[in-house]
Amino acid sequence: MELGRRMARWIGGILSRRAPVRLDRTRHDLVVVVSGFDDAEACSTALERGTEDDPAWVADAEAVLRHHLRLPAEAVRGVVDIASQDGYAPTDDPEPLADGAVVLRLERVQVLDALHCSQERSRMVGLAQRHGGTALGWEGLQPNAAP
Question: Which parts of the chain fold into alpha helices (H)?
Answer without folding.
Answer: 2-16, 43-52, 76-84, 114-130
